[in-house]
Design a protein that fits this description.
The chain folds into two domains: 162 residues, Reverse transcriptase/Diguanylate cyclase domain (Alpha-Beta Plaits, 2-Layer Sandwich), CATH 3.30.70; 272 residues, Alpha-Beta Barrel (TIM Barrel). The protein is built from 17 helices and 16 strands. The chain has an eight-stranded mixed beta barrel, surrounded by four helices. The longest helix is centred in the middle third of the chain and has 22 residues. It is elongated and about 80 Å long. The protein starts with a helix and ends in a 6-residue tail after the last helix. The structure holds ligand C2E and calcium ion (2 copies).
């Protein structure tokens, strides 16, 4: 890695003095196949102001210190000052998400004032970045793309990322990422809600908010097709803050109709390490007094356990219920599971939809329920599609169920109608009949 990093530093000469010859040929590139190469340009926005306040020499030294800090923040990165308060960073990773993680780390590191000769000094950074798959490496294009991204960041006041991989799929992703940045302003995002039913109490325990995008040209886009793009382009921050605001308003509407319910919001992994997001989310929720839950995955905690667990404790501390989503589908660690301030564990629908047709899945579900109870958590089974699955889950001691059997995710108006008419009760009746049939097949204990 050290060898590799020093090779890269040859390439990252100041943009002006860069020629195509300085780019290392593809054949000698030691990066993993399908890996990614990134350039981040960080501009000290208040560089001129700093110079006026602290003098030229001190400010240049400060830029050097900031460069050193940035280099340390990102594993294996080179960082060089290219003049006028701009720093160029280059690094590679097998994972595209590494760029998002790096930008978050940079923004977080300079969120608070730094000490300059005993004085608190705010450093305002602007970030423009570019990514390419290592195999298509073209450093000139990459740096030019980062420069364009920085120019956009100067206008938009948020970090901008350009992808220059150039495959049709990437182009499409770039187009979608760009459209997504306008989607909120143009009111194109909508929330649907899916109830969770408490099995023993036979009442709606809470609802989960699921976002959809009514695209003016492409029609309705499902979250699996744009949330990953939002995570990569950092649009996820604005999207999630929008979701929180909308949920707070919709919860008031529900209350006006006599329905007092906690609403759960899905929180993407990258946000768990983003202190600015954490602060903004907490402010919104605390000032509104809304009853909110956050669904997070264990995979997102494992990425950076220390800050994720600390932030989850901040959320739990202000009364946000934490649920572990997609349990069993991703990475899992008992060591972390024990440390999470979670009240609910949601078994991934992968295991639930096959529950009554597989030999293995009932055992997994059963032991997960026991594990969660041992850790003092309530268990939610998602993806409950049939009365027999509901019956079996009920026998196994599952606390809550969610799935198409009870309701698909529906708009707020339909949810109010659903709640007014106690629609879930009919489902329970149905499953009781199924329970009679199932009891002969599955015996508890
Ligand atoms: P998820 O959190 O696991 O949400 C459950 C998904 O399963 C939803 O898909 C839901 O429509 C679907 N589903 C519900 N009941 C059943 C069932 O009985 N059978 C089957 N086969 N599927 C069922 P959806 O709405 O397309 O959401 C997909 C994923 O997108 C969500 O998975 C969540 O990870 C993500 N997502 C949705 N909204 C947001 C959001 O606001 N923020 C973030 N970060 N992620 C979101
Ligand atoms: Ca969820
Ligand atoms: Ca889930």
């Amino acid at each position: 890695m050290t060898d590799h990093a020093s090779e890269i530093s040859k390439v990252t000469a100041p943009v002006d003095g860069m020629s195509r010859r300085s780019v290392r040929p593809l054949a000698t590139l030691s990066a993993a196949r399908d890996g990614w190469r990134f350039v981040i340009l960080v501009e000290i926005e208040n560089f001129t102001v700093l110079r006026r306040q602290h003098g030229r020499a001190r400010t240049d030294a400060l830029a050097g210190e900031i460069t050193a800090t940035l280099r340390e923040l990102v594993d294996g990165a080179t960082a060089i000052s290219i003049g006028r308060g701009t720093i160029e960073m280059t690094f590679e990773s097998e994972q595209r998400i590494a760029l998002t993680t790096a930008i978050t780390a940079i923004e977080t590191a300079f969120e608070r004032p730094v000490d300059v000769d005993g004085e608190d000094q705010q450093i305002d950074l602007l970030v423009g970045a570019a990514a390419t798959s290592s195999l298509r490496r073209d450093d000139v294009r990459l740096i030019e793309a980062a420069e364009r991204a920085l120019a956009m960041a100067q206008v938009d006041r948020v970090a901008v990322v350009h992808d220059v991989t150039g495959s049709p799929e990437t182009v499409d992703r770039i187009a979608l990422a760009r459209d997504l940045s306008h989607a909120i302003l143009r009111d194109e995002l909508i929330l649907h809600y899916q109830p969770k039913v408490h099995v023993r109490r036979q009442e709606i325990a809470s609802v989960e908010a699921l976002v959809r995008w009514r695209h003016p040209v492409r029609g309705m886009i499902q979250p699996n097709d744009f949330i990953p793009i939002a995570e990569e382009s950092r649009g996820i921050v604005a999207l999630t803050l929008w979701t929180i605001r909308k949920v707070i308003t919709d919860q008031r509407t529900l209350a006006e109709h006599g329905h007092d319910l906690t609403v759960f919001i899905n929180i993407a992994g990258v946000l768990l390490g983003d202190t600015r997001f954490v602060r903004q989310a907490c402010t919104l929720i605390q000032t509104s007094g809304a009853k909110i839950g956050f669904e997070i995955t264990e995979t997102s905690v494992i990425r950076d356990p220390e800050s994720a667990i600390a932030n989850l404790k901040v959320f739990a501390g202000i009364g946000i219920t934490i649920a572990i989503d997609d349990y069993g589908a991703g990475l899992s660690s008992l060591a972390y599971l024990k440390q999470l301030p979670a009240k609910e564990l949601k078994i991934d629908k992968l295991f639930v939809t096959q529950l009554t047709s597989s030999n293995r899945d009932p055992l997994i579900v059963r032991s997960t329920i026991d594990l969660a109870h041992a850790l003092d958590m309530e268990v939610v089974a998602e993806g409950v599609e049939t009365p027999s699955a509901l019956a079996l889950l009920s026998v196994m001691g599952c606390d809550m169920v969610q799935g198409y059997l009870i309701s698909r995710p529906i708009a707020i108006e339909a949810l109010i109608d659903f709640l007014d008419n106690d629609r879930h009760v009919a489902t329970a009746e149905n499953s009781r009949a199924a329970l009679g049939r199932m009891a002969t097949v599955w015996k508890r204990g």
